Amino acid sequence: MNRICRLLAIAGLLAGLAISAWSFDLSPKGTRFDRDAVKAWAPSWLDGILTALTDQGLRKFKHPVHEEITHRAYECNYEGATICGDPDAQYATPYVIAGVRWNDDPPFQMNPNQAQGTSCKTSYADGRPMTIRFITQPKCWAELFLAAEKQIKIDANKRFDVANQSALPLRSHFGDLQFVHSMASSDDEEPAETRSKILGWAELTWGVVRGSYKLETWLKDINVPVVQQFFGNSGWRVQELFALGDPSLRPYVSDVAFGSLLHMVEDSFAAGHVDRMEPAFGAQCPGNSHRAPGPIRELHSYSHQSGSKHADADTREAFINHRLTPDVVDVSRTLVAMRKANAEWAEVGAYLTCVYDFAPGVRKASAGGF
To answer: What's the whole-model pTM score?
Structure first.
């Protein structure tokens, strides 16, 4: 009976993530390496149950919308979500899909002091630091996430940022890295500042995509302001940023970085993240023949948003009901084509500036209608 009660309690904890600050819904299923690693070290019955909940039961709470958009960008054209919505479909590579998951679930490590009062395991038996992802330690991840969400709702000035060395998922959902979701870091942030950070992240990821920045490249040596501002003192290389604790991803880091770029751009079409106008019929981006998306009226901030309203705008129903021309799939397909053509950053940056074009009178960040 105690085991059943514990299972129900944790199922409720995980279900609570369904109304939190996610982007378009995302399956929590990790890479094959993640799943095999969990099987290898999971020390207790409870960890095994949590893994089973993550791999099987949580799908009824979260739908793989990001994966579906990405597979459709790679020319999956089946109706309905059965095939294109399968996270393991073979249109986008599993490494691109791992990158798409990065923005919501970046890998991180903690020291024992940071983990006090949580279920988080910080090291293996031999003393090596343990990398935490949702799939590997779902209870730890949920504890940290829900505690952070509670804190920011009590105090909107609570900071999860580079200064206090917060875990990356807390920074990306609630703190200074919200730009990886096409969102402002706080209310009243100037739209030009948010867009500058978005384009900076795009420049970093495109540099990794093209091989200009390799696994061994130190982030402190990458001359992109957003990298210097948020990761310059991290002591990390590209490997630690995109493939921490997962050797299976490292030969495919360009795919991972590209997936992260796709996730950010996809989020700019989620109403809880960005208020866009409808596209003008036939409008094209300056200097090329790409169709122009609707201009942006506001890049939202999560600080004062309702978690449930935000989540409603990130469902598959919202994705299907707001398919305009060009829409999120069209824009993602253009980026896939640019990658295949090995386009220079100047071309990609110009296109993304068009994707993030502002409407006249663009507003400072707020919760919007959420």
So the answer is: 0.86
